[in-house]
Amino acid sequence: MKKCLFLCTLSLTMVATIGCAGGRTPAMKDMTDSVGQKSAVQGTNDSLLVDSLGKSFSDDAASVDFSCDFPVSGPRVLVDSLRTFLSKEMAGCVVASPDDQTVAPKTYNHLADGKGMIAYYADATFKSLKSLGRGDEEVKRHPYSISLSVNKVYDTADYVTYTSVFSLYEGGAHGMASLRGVTFDKKSGSQIGYPVDSTALKALQPILREGVKSYFIDVAKNDGESVSDTDIKDFMDGLFIENGIIPLPAAAPYLSPDGVVFVYGQYEIGAYAIGMPTFTVPYGKIEKYLTPEARRLTGLK
Question: Which residues make beta-bridge pairs with 66?
Fold first, then answer.
């Protein structure tokens, strides 16, 4: 398989997964809501019940699409922490043009009101995005857009993990996207710190290299392509790293039932075309490099 074809495959996979916003076709002055309910854990005192909420705004110049899993019941400290986290994630989507700082919203103070929160921040983001695109002659042909999806992905007896997926298009050849996971201690409600010992970077190299290789291989397999050892070597050699050392990702890895999930951002260790290298390291391979906090939450001794 040729390198250029593989890079195209990676890029297309990233767009499909993250939902790059450049190709959206917004309806004129469309505003939509969505509400659902689900619970991942049943029958325990520590059950976390969430509502699946959504809010969208769009016209011929811009579109905004927000969705989240909003906690409605569960351990009080955890519910409060998650609501504060969601508020900050949504507030962070508001953009301000250099000549217009008035669009920055105040913090939404009614943290128990999920529908009000998502509507407030989606509206503020939509207004800010339209302000940013004002004067851009291309905006009607290529509307600006922002999407944010913050969802509960894992809920265990000891921790809850949310992922936050963000994409932005403000003109140009392509948009930008990000993905990060955040793990919360159910007992304290606090976000856990970086779960991997950052001082062990050298010792972690075999694990990180194996993980990045597995990402390339999995993307190719999902597209029905085969990858040779030479292909993998070429791609590994093309990473944006110094002295052959793969850094730990800037965004903290997060906990899952299957292991620790690593996510590298766009351009963090390679070209845009490789997407966001993501892989899961089983606990059996990485447990000795985990922090005491991560070991406790995952039941490791």
Answer: 55, 148
Pairing of strands 159-169, 176-185: antiparallel
Are the C-beta atoms of residues 290 and 284 closer than 8 Å to each other?
Answer: no
User: Which one-letter DSSP state was computed for residue 171?
Assistant: S
User: Strand locations in 29-97, DSSP E?
Assistant: 30-39, 49-58, 62-73
Read off φ and ψ for residue 245, nearest 5 degrees: -100, 120
d(CA 118, CA 35): 11
Q: What is the 3-state secondary structure (H, E, C) of 112-141?
A: CCHHHHHHHHHHHHHHHHHHHHCCCCCCCC
pLDDT tens figures, 191-230: 999 999 999 999 999 999 999 999 999 998 998 988 899 9
DSSP 3-state assignment of 193? coil
How far, in Å, CA of 81 to CA of 78, rounded? 5
Distance between CA atoms of residues 10 and 265, nearest Å: 14
